[in-house]
Amino acid sequence: MTLDNYIERAKDSKTIFYLAAPSRSLAEASPYYESLKSKQQEVLFCYEPYDELVLMQLQQFKGYKLVSVEKDMRDDKAANDLSNLGEDSLKRSEVNELSDWIKTKLSGKAVEVNATTRLENHPCVVTVEEMAAARHFIRTQSHQLSEDRRYALLQPKFEINPRHPIIKKLHKLITSDPHLAELLANQLFANSMVGAGLVEDPRVLLTSMNALLAKALEKH
């Protein structure tokens, strides 16, 4: 599909949404895409690394703003309105308690921890200000920096889904098993960083994943 095709099919929106992913299957399964999919909002899938850099620099096309789905999620203040969470969700007080606890455990990594209503099937995501620039930075320059410096530059926000079973279980674990809860919170954040394409080598997850599995299996 061309940008002209997209505009022809657009309804009332003056925005062209796009999502960069290695493949169509990964794009369709992306946590950043699911809320727009539920609204039947068309999104351009981009499979080459340079696609999102070009679209980010272009900014607009024939009066239509070019917006990445990750940027749309980060800027969506309405998604942080927790007034209508429903009975299947953590209560607002529990969300605040869990968010503050996670922020403490992810100190030096996540600049903010918020709950979002934009997630349905995923427990959490990471957003940064400009995902395309961040991914390009990770691919080309991040190996020259320490982990602390990398996080300081990326300024990732960690967004949790208060309706997801894993997040609800994590809230219980912060009092019943704080060590397991900390391992789980760090693993969820690491998984989200990989899902966002912000980890140069995903194999770094194996050590923390094994530690989490070992702790989870202690009683079995």
Automatic annotation (TrEMBL):
Gene3D superfamilies: 3.40.50.11260, Heat shock protein 90, C-terminal domain. The keyword Chaperone applies. InterPro entries: HSP90_C, Hsp90_fam, Ribosomal_Su5_D2-typ_SF. Pfam families: HSP90. It comes from Tenebrio molitor. This is Heat shock protein 90. One of its GO terms (molecular function) is unfolded protein binding. Keywords: Chaperone. Belongs to the heat shock protein 90 family.
